[in-house]
Amino acid sequence: MTTIIEGNDATTIEHRDGVDFFNNPETALSNQIGGRHYRHLPIPPFDFCRKNGIGHAEGEAIYHIVRHKNKNCRADLEKAIHWLQLIIEHDYEE
Q: Fewer CB in a 10 Å sphere around the end CB: N or C, the chain?
């Protein structure tokens, strides 16, 4: 269970089957490969994307935006822009 505090409001998020996958050592989310750039977040991008039905390309943009300050800085923002450009070209251009 994760509690998110925004202002004076606290929201508790229960993960599937009552398991906090991000902080449970027996789950893949707790074993981040290649860094700890998502560990400080109250809601990991994986959970956010899955719970909101966000597709792969959109999720990639979100991942890069969320981690840019803690991992690859400008390069992550450029990657996010690239993913957004792919979405525009594929979904909106005729």
A: C
